Amino acid sequence: MKNKNHLILLSLIVSLLGTACSSKKEATKEEDQPIMETVNYLEESETAKAARMEWWKDARFGMFIHWGLYAIPAGEWNGTKSDNIGEWIMDHLHIPIAEYEKFAAEFDPVKFNAEQWVSIAKNAGMKYIVITSKHHDGFALWDSKVSEWDVMDASPYKKDILKALADACEKEGIKLCFYHSIMDWHHPDAQSVFEPNYNTGREDSVLSENFPRYLENYMKPQIKELLTNYGDIGVIWFDGEWVPEYTTEMGKDVYQYIREIKPDVIINNRVDKGRQGMNGMDKEGDFAGDFGTPEQEIPETGMPGLDWESCMTMNDTWGYKSFDNNWKSEETLIRNLVDIASKGGNFLLNVGPTAEGEIPAPSVERLQAMGEWMKVNGESIYGTTASPVEAPDWGRITKKGNTLYLHIFNWPANGKLDISNIGGTATKATLMADNSELSISDTSIDLPATAPDKVCSVIKVEI
Ligand code: FHN
Fold first, then answer.
1. Looking at ligand 1, which atom is closest to the CA of residue 280?
2. Looking only at Cα atoms, what is the longest distance across the chain?
3. Distant-in-sequence, close-in-space partners of 149: CB < 8 Å, separation ≥ 6
4. How do strand 395-400 and strand 175-181 relate by DSSP bridges?
5. For the domain with range 395-462, which CATH number is right: 3.30.420.40, 1.20.1260.10, 2.60.40.1180, 1.10.540.10?
6. pLDDT per position as a tens digit, 195-241
7. Distance from CA of residue 259 to its chain's centroid?
8. Residue 300 in 3-state DSSP?
9. How far, in Å, are 390, 410, 416, 417, 447 from residue 413 at the CA level?
10. Which of 239, 242, 308 best tests ligand 1's pocket when mutated (most atoms within 8 Å of CB)?
């Protein structure tokens, strides 16, 4: 009797469990349904944005790489030397598309060595690389499945350049980022017919009705390839956003599209519609991507309230030009980096490799010098914030918590550094060049007779 009762009880439990399990199954089925939750990435909290921007703000220094078919003419076509930037040669010398296409057949950069490029950047103290996945000529440096106008299909090189860089960057702990041009002088749907400034020299202009098709069927799929096939991507850096067909609405849509694929990616302000010649400085209103992009300039007072990055060339061109020898000095480049950091910005410094795949020697030399300076003084740049006060006569200031970094451009002849207005009272001062402690009087620091670094010596000060 006892056993029978046990059996009844057991079967009751089993059947109850069965019911529970099957209803659990039903519930699981429902849970399995994709949750159609749409995050609006255009409305992000300040905290969430700050977390996303953190690595980028700490990095402070990156390498811009302008590389493409324009490195082949290197500023000269059919006996004419272009007096403009190298990567614009197709436009400036009015090279017809069919003629320009011939460069692809010549593109065979046998000296390209991704690891070498990445180590040049890393040794310079740079933390990220932004390479032209596609510049205005439309030529893609990767194996794009939606295009034949790429390194794989149109050139004899037939290797995915971005893949090689992605592998090298991953190995070295450098963030890989992609520049991408919205303006496209090659894709038939993207060109304003007779647009005066692009590829025809004609005065009249007819908009391309098919631009939305280019955006949906070409630009977005290409961006998706860039976001999904090359590992961890730091930034999508748009440009060419001033084409007449492009709108702020399209920009918002592209922004949302990218972050739905990779929520953490950072996107520059040129994803929004802009005006040609304004170099990313004309963005107003509530939508301007994640950071400002002053070009070839350092804003006088930085861009208060905004994250920003100054991009600059080392000579006068972005893409390689064989006869541009107007190189900035190491002093200028190091001081530019310091100046930018003291105003709270990042420095994106450009190199334009040759058609064979080499970063020009004058660029490498300058980057080495910057790297040597950064090895001693990098702490005064990485992870710092803007100076709490206006730039002093003797140089610049950066800040990290209760530490100030005094960057001395002009070493005082009287051996005393005026610290009466550095935004705090100094309690300890150390020369970064040799870690020696310097004595502090009320309003000055006693300095050695000569500067350890003529370009910029740094004193670390606790306040
Ligand atoms: O037209 C381009 C130019 O070629 C270059 O890529 C620079 C880099 O910021 N951006 C554009 C001009 O604003």
1. 13
2. 109
3. 104, 138, 139, 140, 186, 187
4. unpaired
5. 2.60.40.1180
6. 545 555 566 667 888 999 999 999 999 999 999 999 999 999 999 99
7. 16
8. strand
9. 22, 9, 8, 9, 10
10. 239
Q: Is the CB of 318 under 6 A from ligand 1?
A: yes
What is the distance in A from the centroid of ligand 1 to the CA of 85?
9
The Cα 371–Cα 115 span in angstroms is 17
The domain locations on the chain are 43-380, 395-462
Nearest atom (ligand 1) to Cα of 183: 1
**Structure tokens given for 420:** 């009466």
Which amino acid does the sequence have at 226?
L
Q: Is the CB of 142 under 6 A from ligand 1?
A: no
pLDDT value of residue 203:
61
311 within ligand 1 shell (Cβ under 6 A): yes
Q: Which residues of the chain have pLDDT under 70?
A: 1-36, 193-205, 275-286
Q: Is 39 exposed, middle or buried (0-12, 13-18, 19+ CB in 10 A)?
A: exposed
Q: Residue of the nearest CA to atom 10 in ligand 1? A: 239
Of 180, 143, 182, 148, nearest to 162 by C-alpha is: 143
Ligand 1 neighbour 200 (Cβ under 6 A): no
Q: Are 239 and 251 in contact (CB under 8 A)?
A: no
Query: By the 8 A CB rule, do 331 and 308 touch?
Result: no
Q: Is residue 118 within 8 Å of 166, Cβ to Cβ?
A: no
Does residue 231 contact residue 200 with C-beta atoms inside 8 Å?
A: no
Backbone angles phi, psi at 132, to 5 degrees: -70, 95
For residues 192 and 200, is the Cβ–Cβ distance under 8 A? Answer: no
Is the minimum distance from the CB of 418 to ligand 1 under 6 angstroms? Answer: no
309-312 and 346-351 strand pairing? parallel
Domain 43-380 sits in which CATH superfamily? Glycosidases (3.20.20.80)
Domains 43-380 and 395-462 alike in fold: no
List of E strands, 202-300: 233-239, 266-267
Q: How far apart are CA 2 and CA 7, in angstroms?
A: 9
- At residue 274, the pLDDT reads 78
Where helices occur in 267-308 by DSSP H, the ranges are none
410 within 8 A of 376, measured Cβ to Cβ: no
What predicted TM-score, i.e. pTM, was given to this entire model?
A: 0.91
